[in-house]
Amino acid sequence: MPDQFNKILLVDDDENLNKVLSFQLSQMGFDITTATDGPSGLSLFKRGSFDIVITDLQLPGMTGMELLTSIRRLDKNVIILIITAYGTVENAIEASRLGADDYLTKPFGKETLRFILEKAIQLRKLKAENIQLRNELYQKYDFGNLIGRSAIMEDVLKLTGKVAESDVTVLIQGESGTGKELIARAIHYNSPRKDKSFITVNCPSIPENLMESELFGHVRGAFTGALKDRKGKFQLAEQGTIFLDEIGDLKADLQARLLRVLQEKEIEKVGDSTPIKVDARIVAATNKKLETLVQQERFREDLYYRLNVVTIPIPPLRDRKDDIPFLVDHFLKKYGKEQAYDISSEALDLIMQYDWPGNVRELENTIERAIVISREKTIGIEVLQPISRNLKQKIALPTEIGEIENLSFSEIERRAIINALNKTKGNQTKAAKLLDIPRHVLLYRMKKLGV
Ligand SMILES: Nc1ncnc2c1ncn2[C@@H]1O[C@H](COP(=O)(O)OP(=O)(O)OP(=O)(O)O)[C@@H](O)[C@H]1O
Ligand SMILES: [Mg+2]
Question: Model pTM?
């Protein structure tokens, strides 16, 4: 198997395990160097040119986590695999966040070792080959990685495509994680401005006193610390698009300044009142209802009308569950890379039942996590604990009627009731209708059956 990925550094304080692994790995054709503590592992790494590092998490002198962080800082291309004790999967997730490529749970056999190594090597190769390609793709952005198969999302995408052709100001409204930024990018990269910059301003993350300079720039000496002239984001977005994210959080005085920019197409740098013409297409987004903020006098009505020339409302994921299987598929490909992951029908059922308060972002994180911890190529319900736990809190019983053979009458009845309640999201009146019984009968039976 090894070709250009040949030199392995193995760091584990268990000398026996080192011996066994060294033997197995050299049989597979690798060239192995071992260390039994963190500091000597690190110094070996600095001296040698390793392609792969396999390290335990518990090490004397320096934890595996620290070693991993240091090595990743030195070399972003080396493959890092960690060895964890059984039952410390959360550590493995943390490690993958710190840059580990994969992990092995003790005890593991030779075939698992081979599989994990092969997978990591393939991934690395693919990454190297694809970086160039992906950069190009990104610049030519289309709706390629924007999934929207439900009827509502198809309308959203149609609208997105249509507004992209023009220069109108767009307001994107949707709950957190629904894909507002993705839509904003799609607008830019499908517009005549696509070869110029797409500049994001995240309104809540910029300190109030710096916001004005951030947006409009400043001249030298405008305030303490303004050592030289600086362009603001509006100027950086010249002939491109400026994306004002979470616009609902913009403070009153800046709302007034922004309104002027929209009206006059001019900005003034902080510390200089000479107006400068700007040509930036404005796309704004908010997860708040701007209408409500306007009613509460927290957002200027005139600015709202200026921004809201076209609104693209992105519905929450729970209102477009038809998209879920396609999104799941997309994320399985995205995070599984060339490993062909799929999902069991039980797991997909669970995902379909869940309400996804964090919308697509939550779904994406769930799939990413599931792939990290799954030892199978088919994602099952056991790696979806966070959402199954959540669902259980709502209804702590099986949701399927399933096979009725071998079930008692009362059990069948109980399941029919639960099924009806699930379908009606817990609405008893509707559930009774569905079961074709009066509501009081339903309530009586529920009590009796302990539903
Ligand atoms: N329709 C979609 N197809 C594919 N991926 C999506 C889709 N919608 C959202 N995502 C993914 O979900 C994540 C969240 O999307 P994005 O950041 O655009 O949402 P947002 O509405 O701006 O969220 P927030 O309000 O939290 O900033 C991103 O990783 C994005 O790629
Ligand atoms: Mg966002």
Answer: 0.61
